[in-house]
Amino acid sequence: MVFRRIVFSVAIVMLSFFIIGFAYCSIMGNLYHNVLSNELLSINSEKLGIKNIEEIKKASNGMLYWKKNNPDYLIDASYVSYLESLTIESEHERKNLLNSSIQYLDSSIRLRPLFPDAYSQKADLMDYRGDSLKDVYTVLRSVYQFGPFEKDTAETSIKILFSHWDKLNIEQKKIALKFITEHDKYGIKNWRLNEIFKFSPNKERMCSVAILAHIPLWTCGNYKSKS
Known about the structure:
Helix 7 (about 150-165) packs across helix 8 (about 170-180). By secondary structure, the chain is mainly alpha-helical. The radius of gyration is 23 Å and the shape is globular. Helix content is about 75%, strand content about 0%.
């Protein structure tokens, strides 16, 4: 009887230490995540320098040290690796950082396989890295499966599919067109569509769709002021 009580007491103490340790790691991870979020909000990718990226990396590494199995943290860490790749001149190192970025997203997907956000960012990064349209579209299918009406789903698809328009089959082209002609379904307002078009190298083709669909956009020259 005494032995059982001792074993039970030890088990309670160990469980308490585990709970305290878990809570502490969560708190520390969250603190570093807040620091990272503030750092990311304060930067401009066009003016990103070594000093900026070092501060961002420090916050990201601290975040993952304390809480490496958080899907959202892994997505942020992926973005940090991508940002770092923008500051690297070596093509080999740049590719390694992009690979690392995608690996973080894969880890996030394994932890939370039914959410579309990591799939969406992975498809975007794979396209940026120069992967084949077939491989990129395979990931996009997961985006459509788990987040068919998400805003990121539409924006990522517009960006990727219109950049590979000549390689798309009929079904893929229909999907690409739908994200523009039915943009309201995905929570994309006209002003946001205008921003997407304005900075896209595929602006002319996108605007052709918008004009045919009678979607008035400043950047396409078919917007008429009510005044």
